[in-house]
Amino acid sequence: MITRRSALSATLATTGVALTGAGLTPLLAARARSQAAPAAPGTPEKFRRPMPLLPEKKPLARTGRSDLYVMTMQPARAELLPGIPSDVLTYDGHFPGPVIRARAHRPVVIRQRNRLTVPTTVHLHGAAVPPDSDGDPMDVIEPGTERTYHYPNRQPHAPLWFHDHTHHLEAENTYRGLSGSYLLTDPTEAALPLPKGRYEVVIALRDARFDEQGQLAYAMGDRARNTLLANGVPYPYFQVAARKYRLRLLNASNQRRFELRLADGGPLVQIGSDGGLLTAPHTTDRIALSAGERADVIVDFSRHPVGSSVVLTNTTGPGPAQDIGEVLRFDVVRTAHDPSRIPERLRTLPPLPRPDTQRTVVLRMDEGGEHPGAYIDEKAYDPQRVDAHIKFGASEIWTVTNANARAEHNFHLHLVQFRILERAGEPPQPAESGLKDTVFLAPGETVRLQALFNTYRGRYLYHCHMFEHGVRGMMATMQIR
């Protein structure tokens, strides 16, 4: 579990001691080596346990102006491996965390209580929120205290999610369970005849490694997290009716990238990504998700007879194919009436404004060595430094490059959704044609994106969303004024 040494790392960072991300990397790496545990005896047997539905968090109260929630970050035990309770960190005792359903232009207020032994913050990923509610890595909730986050929801529909963002602890805190989903809807989305109710399912995907006692094992940069979880269960099955389902997919892994396919090569109709619906549905045979990305996908199980099954597979590593090649199995168990349909047009996105300025961002991580550093524009994260000054209301084009020859990265902007203009000099593929807040970059790859900074003034982060790259220093601060 997270130790007092973890808390010390965060305390040093938050009290202004002259230790930046680069300075603390050796300490964290040494700790990771000391905590490394032998691998679990074997891979859990596949498709023996059902995939649970994530619980929906209900407001404690509704006023004429907002929905009020109280949420407690607390330790708990979850049966991740059959018959073995594992120690986890949770929101309200749930692993993964619950789903909050919110409406555009109706604010949500959440009082977060920290009943853990380490500091935390809460970042609502993909949301336009005031800086004091963004979950800045240094703006922590100390153990035994609480704070209130205000989410105005003045943005279109989007499948947001929330997770810890405490500097030097975010990777381990999130790995051990501090993440949940936040589905923001609006009249545009609600009016569409898409699958609803029990036929709309949130699926949080991630990886894990277990020690010999069946406990979650954490080590910095661990590439042996080869057990795949769907809604907290390794390789589950999920019973479906022979009709269309809307699957809200989230990659909640620290670092892993997924390429998801149906084992029979069947169609996947992607209707949305990080920032909500695409303008039109896109039929494909694969869904790619790097850490932190989301996809909104329709699967029509009516093409399968009752009594049959189809496996959701993963076709990218790292890890042995027998461990990481299958994710979950859909079992078609009944027929059902299906009034839903997929419209040819889903939404209209406004035209991109003429850009006011352009800037470049270079992501790089040391390749090799015992304590690899990670940088944005050759600088490790320093919470006291502003790296980009942005004029409020400006539309900017950012050219983001992965300068590594082997390491993958991705790129996340706080506060804003953006549009991808080019990937490797080519127009974006349909899956990336909508609004995004996180984008994958292969080694040596460059992506151009455009964002409009017209919601809030203040300081916000931009960083690689592979958590352990951020811990090592691949984060920076922008000031909007």
UniProtKB/TrEMBL annotation:
<keyword id="KW-0560">Oxidoreductase</keyword>
<dbReference type="Pfam" id="PF00394">
    <property type="entry name" value="Cu-oxidase"/>
</dbReference>
<dbReference type="InterPro" id="IPR033138">
    <property type="entry name" value="Cu_oxidase_CS"/>
</dbReference>
<dbReference type="InterPro" id="IPR001117">
    <property type="entry name" value="Cu-oxidase_2nd"/>
</dbReference>
<feature type="domain" description="Plastocyanin-like">
    <location>
        <begin position="235"/>
        <end position="306"/>
    </location>
</feature>
<protein>
    <recommendedName>
        <fullName>Multicopper oxidase CueO</fullName>
        <ecNumber>1.16.3.4</ecNumber>
    </recommendedName>
</protein>
<feature type="domain" description="Plastocyanin-like">
    <location>
        <begin position="357"/>
        <end position="479"/>
    </location>
</feature>
<dbReference type="InterPro" id="IPR045087">
    <property type="entry name" value="Cu-oxidase_fam"/>
</dbReference>
<comment type="subunit">
    <text>Monomer.</text>
</comment>
<feature type="domain" description="Plastocyanin-like">
    <location>
        <begin position="76"/>
        <end position="187"/>
    </location>
</feature>
<dbReference type="InterPro" id="IPR002355">
    <property type="entry name" value="Cu_oxidase_Cu_BS"/>
</dbReference>
<dbReference type="InterPro" id="IPR006311">
    <property type="entry name" value="TAT_signal"/>
</dbReference>
<dbReference type="InterPro" id="IPR011707">
    <property type="entry name" value="Cu-oxidase-like_N"/>
</dbReference>
<keyword id="KW-0479">Metal-binding</keyword>
<dbReference type="InterPro" id="IPR008972">
    <property type="entry name" value="Cupredoxin"/>
</dbReference>
<dbReference type="InterPro" id="IPR011706">
    <property type="entry name" value="Cu-oxidase_C"/>
</dbReference>
<dbReference type="Pfam" id="PF07732">
    <property type="entry name" value="Cu-oxidase_3"/>
</dbReference>
<feature type="region of interest" description="Disordered">
    <location>
        <begin position="35"/>
        <end position="58"/>
    </location>
</feature>
<comment type="similarity">
    <text>Belongs to the multicopper oxidase family.</text>
</comment>
<dbReference type="Pfam" id="PF07731">
    <property type="entry name" value="Cu-oxidase_2"/>
</dbReference>
